[in-house]
Amino acid sequence: MDSSIERLDFIIAVDGLRIQGQGHAGETLIHFPKENAIFDVFNSFADTIQYSYKFTILSTVFKALYGCKKTCLKVNARGLLDIQFMMPITDQSIGFIELVVIPFIFF
Predict the structure, then answer these.
(1) Cα–Cα separations (whole angstroms), residue 5 to 21, 26, 28, 43, 90
(2) Residue 106 pLDDT more than 80?
(3) What gap in Å lies between CA 56 and CA 72, rounded to an integer?
(4) DSSP tag of 79
(5) I need a surface site. Which of 14, 47, 79, 88 has the fewest CB within 10 A?
């Protein structure tokens, strides 16, 4: 992703999840359909909702994404984003990393 992106928009709809951002190099859009192998469970409590988050905060999770076994992403009705990573510690043990982010507010 372009590091000039100020915010990432999470658009959650009954048909899936879209993550988009716009920076100096153009627009980035990632779409995850609801019926996708990456989702164990996908639930949406509204037809379509959109929340935005600061890219500088979310960019800190990229390294954790590469090393994790599973990721859980939850967004509540107020836009609070909760990301949990299941990380291998040793061959027999796992640990968890959790990041909670409030939505980006525009003025």
Answers:
(1) 6, 9, 9, 28, 36
(2) no
(3) 20
(4) -
(5) 47
Coil, strand or helix: which one is 93? Answer: coil
Q: CA 88, CA 42: separation in Å to the nearest integer? A: 24
Tokens of 94: 């796992």
- What is the C-alpha separation between 47 and 39, in angstroms, rounded? 18
CATH number, domain containing residue 17: 3.70.10.10
pLDDT in tens, 6-56: 889 999 998 899 999 988 888 889 999 988 887 888 888 778 999 999 998
Look at residue 107 and tell me if it is in a domain: no
Structural domain total, the chain: 1
